[in-house]
Amino acid sequence: MILLDGKKTAQTLKEEIKQAVTSITDKGKRPPHLAAVLVGNDGASLTYVGSKVRACDYVGFESTLIQLEASTTEAELLKHIEDLNKNPELDGYIVQLPLPKHIDEEKILLAIDPAKDVDGFHPANFGRMALEMEAFIPATPFGIIELLERYQIETSGKHCVVVGRSHIVGRPISILMSQKGLAGNATVTVAHSRTKNLNTLTKEADIIVMALGIPEYLTAPMVKEGAVIIDVGITRVPDSTHPKGYVIKGDVAYEEVASKASAITPVPGGVGPMTIAMLLKNTLLAYHRNH
């Protein structure tokens, strides 16, 4: 069984990006610059944005954190986005989701300049990705593809079942897995919470991408011998015996499924670290496109 080690692979990627930044700054040019906009004080969002800022520091990027009160109006946030769009010293930025309920997420995402949309959420980037044109690919699906390529997992002609249909993971990874490429050319089935006889589909799958958000949903009887398992799920499950009061669980019952899998991502340490690494890669791509 191959452990698809996202933590190790992400570190390799960061070292590669760090070298690329050094070659830029050695020529007297400014380094890539990534900004993050955070509205409110959501704990998970604060943790995630903090890890992004630290990753920027590590590879040598400039980073800017714009932290706004939860009471920030939609108009005020749109003004910040307009300023970021116009800033020539900024290569890319993200608006951390979720946003407070009084702000229309769709309106905010549409306001982001697609050329600086390093999260890859703007419809222009999604459409370009679907048409196999140059685009920013959402960081989590981008990270899955990178993992499969680096571990030389055979995907061509394989049956891939994607469980989950979100715009951030499920839909984009289903498109990418079916496209031409090293980690592509698969026959893809998209399933979700309303799919009937889901276990029949997963039993037939050569590759399963779990992005449902239900802890340990995928169990050993639902998987055939030798399947490749990509676990995107990350849920805090209360656990009074743990110092933090919770444990992190994926969508896969790891111990029992790993015994049948030919390759599997752990949680934590699988897809999660890859997401931040690919955000950095997108920012580096944005820098080169802008120059």
Annotated CATH topology of the largest domain = Rossmann fold
Quick one: CATH superfamily of the largest domain?
NAD(P)-binding Rossmann-like Domain
Strand content: 15-25%
What does the main sheet amount to?
A: 6 strands, parallel
Helical residues, percent: 40-55%
Order of helices and strands: EHEHEHEHHHEHEHEEEEHEH
Strand order in space, largest sheet: 1-11-8-7-5-6
Please identify the structural class as seen in this structure: alpha/beta
Radius of gyration computed on alpha carbons: 19 Å
What is the CATH domain class of the largest domain?
A: Alpha Beta
Number of helices: 10
Number of folding domains? 2
> What integer is the average pLDDT?
96
* CATH second-level architecture of the largest domain: 3-Layer(aba) Sandwich
What's the N-to-C terminus distance? 43 Å
Given as residue ranges, the uncertain stretches (5+ residues, pLDDT < 50) are none
Number of distinct beta strands:
11
Tell the overall outline.
globular
Write the layout of secondary structure elements.
Elements: E1 2-3, H1 6-25, E2 33-39, H2 43-59, E3 62-68, H3 74-86, E4 92-95, H4 105-111, H5 123-130, H6 139-150, E5 159-163, H7 170-178, E6 187-191, H8 198-204, E7 207-210, E8 228-231, E9 235-238, E10 246-249, H9 254-258, E11 263-264, H10 271-290
Parallel strand pairs: 1-11, 2-3, 2-4, 5-6, 5-7, 7-8, 8-11
Antiparallel strand pairs: 9-10
Helix pairs in contact: 1-10, 2-10, 6-7, 6-10
